[in-house]
Design goal:
heterodimer; A: 345 residues; alpha/beta; D-Maltodextrin-Binding Protein, domain 2; ten-stranded mixed β-sheet; 44% helix; globular; B: 532 residues; mainly alpha; MetI-like fold; two-stranded parallel sheet; 23 helices
């Protein structure tokens, strides 16, 4: 055997040894354990600040909301998780429905988050708001033609709308919101007209829809507003240019208001440190934290006394749909079925 | 041997057990609406990727194994590089280049003063696009396994064929190719299993494939049980498919004729040499150079903010997991491969087959299959200890690196097993017997005869799993311990937030670490396989 091969084996043996060490090293023992569907970059700095102020360490694992939920469910009463953080209301609703969360009564929390952005039994609280808005190409669309989501089913938009796949949670919650507000039949009719207006088979992410409007493939697109914010602040010149070619429109302003989803958090039933976990949620709902937490991802703070970022203020104030966001979770499966029936891929 | 295979088979069995019921109303809905789409699209995807990987893999393997042209040595390892590229990442890079807002189409519009709709351009985010992307990153499986088989083929065979008056082309189709069939089948089945398990690419391209359906049912409808049943159906399909392939070559034996000289390469001259170079370069460019260049361009924009000490930890973690898991897979594959050779019984065959099914299941689903038995064992142990001794240790295995490595073994055993078995089938049983009759112990036979003959296959097994683990995402994401991230996790977090440019640095790093074993092992392999 050549010498090189021996070296390789030795390298592997060495890494095996380090692995043994690594097994022990993960996770501080007296920490608050967080399962987060919101990605690390958007929470870690805030968690670090919490540790600095309170001395309470935090262990973090991130992942898909439903996958983390499955982990939580399987681990049962022995789950190490204290706090479950998500990037949509539906997962919190599901966790509550599966009996994986415990209620937290805290006047601080209740006064910080408006009633429609938290569970009515205090199982979880919204931490930031995300709005599903329209963007349009100003040279091809007169904003006077735009009004609410319902009008997007109008034949005048045939072949002019871009939207991503119905597998996307924010499309699902938009339809769930419609089911709650307008009922099954009206939503089914709307879906049929809306799907008929697609400029192309749904594909890509929200940024891709904005780029397609800028490139002229479609005239309007349905996206979450923070993606437009992210593109306007992008390091990539082409992305910035595309974002500058479109204009944001707040739909439903004369009706119930723009569709809102949240990122939020709840304390797990199995939590061994519920007290510290509550402190952490309270910390995240403090004014300073709210400002950072919302701004880092171009979202809106849930606290009404905290101003949104300078960029977001240029889009002006808006009226939000005050349907309790737990309805979005309750009707999510119904929404998916309705979209399947309408042929929204 | 049966026991270790059975342990690895547990997660797949857990998924399959979901078929016992209960069946929810969601099935009715799926039947009525989208199920047919899922099935048809996945079949088309498989057909396309099967044909694509075979075309790219076999042709490049033949060129580098049987022909001599300038740059052959370089190409023979460089053609493996696309393997280190996660499929969803290559999908992002090509979309960045070719979609309606990308530089190519924007350039066309600007140059010819066209509007959108004035011209035809292939849609990258489509079924065809997905076939191209997956073929480009998966052909190395076929290439690697087939090439080992080509190089191992005795020269005498080809020469005998030529002396009987067949042309070089006929010899390729009648002798070389049929002799390499087990290796090609192994490579293509790996590519197809990975295709069926892929979620990232089809989801981004908006192709309603079977995996899309599994996740939609789980995440969208909140029906994990139905999703598991869908995954189990997928498993049954894969088992049937491979059983069919095995049966079709059940009566054939593929042994090398003695030691033999290896084939003398055909020396290509003039335009033939240029054509060979161009073909190899084209595949390499499309599968690696172009997307890597796009990634490097993006990474350059973010180099300073992203390259920190935390990034080095990510590098270390990824490398560590890949090394650990590839070694575990290899050892187990050897155990199972030899077990089957020594006792070719039904039970052994079935457990081994089931144990290696994990490769065809989407990672997140297999992760749930791993989680359920571990959490059950942990909770039972905790319960028992509390009852008997009044201590509660909590969860001991769940959420550790051990559980994660086990999950990798479940998921990637097929990869190491395929190449170990492909190697073993080429060693005739009577060689063992001859060696034993000359007084060698079984261990001696293994060391003196099998190891030298198998070296190429073993290194291949190690390399394939190493690279697979490096880019593995869904299982890592859900099973990893607290505060433990890998390059793939970081790339995914950024990409899922549609910050592709920032995802480029970790993605590029995956590709670069993937290079290390590719280079080390191919150099070592070229020595092992009598390469002049």
């Amino acid at each position: 055997m050549p010498l090189r091969h021996h070296r390789f084996i030795r390298a592997i043996a060495l890494s095996l040894l380090t692995a043994g060490g690594g097994l022990v090293a993960c996770g501080a023992p007296d920490a608050v354990n967080v399962y987060s569907a919101r990605q690390e970059a958007l929470i870690k700095p805030l968690l670090d600040q919490f540790t600095e102020e309170t001395g309470i360490a935090i262990n973090l694992v991130t992942g898909d909301g439903d996958a983390l939920l499955a982990r939580l469910r399987n681990e049962g009463d022995n789950s190490p998780a204290d706090l479950f953080l998500t990037s949509d209301a539906g997962k919190l609703y599901r966790a509550q429905a599966d009996d994986l969360l415990q209620p937290v009564t805290s006047t601080t929390l209740q006064s910080a988050a408006p009633a429609y952005l938290r569970s009515d039994e205090n199982y979880w609280y919204g931490l930031s708001m995300r709005a599903r808005v329209l963007v349009y190409a100003p040279e091809r669309v007169d904003p006077a033609e735009l009004s609410d989501y319902a009008s997007l089913a109008d034949p005048v938009w045939r072949g002019r709308i871009c939207v991503r796949s119905s597998g996307n949670i924010y499309n699902q919650s938009l339809v769930a919101g419609m089911l709650a507000n307008d009922g099954v039949d009206a939503t089914a009719t709307w879906l049929e007209g809306f799907v008929a207006n697609f400029a192309r088979t749904p594909q890509g992410g929200d940024r891709d829809q904005i780029k397609a409007v800028a490139a002229g493939q479609c005239d309007i697109a349905l996206v979450n507003s923070y993606y437009l914010g992210g593109m306007l602040q992008s390091d990539d010149a082409a992305e910035r240019a595309a974002a500058q070619q479109v204009t944001l429109f707040w739909p439903n302003q004369s009706g119930r208001g723009v569709h809102i989803n949240i990122s939020g958090a709840g304390i797990t039933r199995s939590a061994s440190k519920p007290e510290q976990a509550r402190q952490l949620i309270e910390f995240m709902l403090r004014e300073e934290s709210q400002r950072w937490y919302a701004e880092v991802n171009n979202e809106y703070p849930v606290r009404e006394d905290v101003e949104p970022s300078a960029l977001l203020q240029t889009w002006g104030p808006f009226k939000a749909d005050e349907l309790n966001v737990s309805e979005l979770g309750r009707l999510n499966a119904e929404a998916v079925k309705a979209m399947d029936r309408a042929g929204w891929q | 041997m049966v026991i270790s295979a059975a342990v690895v088979a547990v997660p797949v069995t857990v998924i399959a057990a979901s078929l016992l019921g209960p069946y929810s109303a969601a099935w009715r809905h799926l039947f009525d609406t989208v199920l047919l789409d899922y099935v048809v699209n996945s079949l088309l995807l498989m057909l396309g990727v099967g044909a694509g990987t075979m075309l790219l893999g076999v042709s490049t393997a033949w060129l580098t194994a049987h022909c001599e042209f300038p740059g052959r040595r370089l190409f023979s390892w460089a053609l493996l590089l696309p393997m280190a590229m996660p499929a969803y990442i290559i999908a992002y890079t090509y979309t960045g280049l070719l979609d309606v807002a990308g530089p190519v189409q924007s350039g066309l519009r600007e140059h010819f003063d066209w509007q959108h709709g004035d011209y035809w351009f292939p849609e990258i985010r489509s079924l065809g696009g997905a076939v191209c992307m997956l073929s480009l990153v998966l052909y190395p499986y076929v290439y690697l396994l087939t090439r080992v088989a080509f190089v191992d083929q005795s020269a005498a065979l080809g020469e005998a064929s030529r002396s009987l008056g067949t042309s070089a082309v006929q010899t390729f189709f009648r002798v070389t190719l049929p002799m390499a069939r087990p290796a090609i089948a192994a490579g293509v089945s790996l590519a197809l299993m990975e295709t069926l398990a892929d979620y990232g690419t089809v989801a981004y391209f908006g192709v309603s494939a079977f995996t899309t359906g599994i996740f939609r049912t789980w995440y969208g409808l909140g029906e994990l049980q139905t999703a598991a049943q869908l995954a189990a159906c997928l498993l049954l399909f894969v088992i049937a498919l491979f059983a069919l392939e095995r049966r079709s070559r059940a009566r054939l034996r593929f042994h090398r004729l003695g030691a033999g000289r290896s084939t003398r390469r055909i020396r290509l001259q003039g335009w033939r040499a240029i054509a060979a170079m161009a073909a190899a370069l084209l595949v390499l460019t499309a599968g690696f150079l172009l997307p890597a260049a796009q990634l490097a361009g993006w990474a350059a924009q973010h180099y300073e903010s992203a390259f920190t000490t935390a990034f080095l930890t990510l590098l270390g973690n990824s490398f560590l997991l890949a090394a650990l898991a590839s070694l575990c897979c290899l050892l187990l594959a050897l155990l199972l491969g030899y077990g089957k050779r020594a006792h070719p019984g039904r039970l052994e065959a079935v457990t081994t087959r089931v144990a290696s099914m994990g490769y065809a299941v989407p990672g997140t689903v297999i992760a749930v299959g791993v989680m359920i038995p571990f959490a059950w064992a942990d909770n039972s142990l905790d319960h028992w200890l509390r009852q008997s001794f009044g201590v509660s240790p909590g969860l001991l295995i769940s959420g550790t690196l051990g559980a994660l490595v086990f999950a990798y073994v479940v998921r990637f055993l097929a990869v190491s097993l395929q190449s170990v078995e492909a190697g073993l089938t080429r060693i005739r049983a009577d060689i063992d017997e001859a060696a034993r009759s000359l007084g060698h112990t079984p261990l001696g036979v293994l060391r003196r005869i099998h190891l030298p003959l198998l070296r190429g296959s073993l290194l291949t097994a190690l390399l394939l799993v190493f690279v697979d683990v490096l880019k593995e995402l869904p299982t890592t994401l859900i099973l990893r311990p607290f505060n433990f991230n890998t390059l793939a996790v970081r790339a995914h977090e950024l990409a899922s937030d549609e910050r592709l440019a920032e995802a480029a640095l970790p993605a590029l790093a995956i590709v670069l670490i993937g290079l290390i074993p590719v280079i080390l092992l191919t150099r070592s392999m070229s020595k092992a396989t009598v390469d002049p």
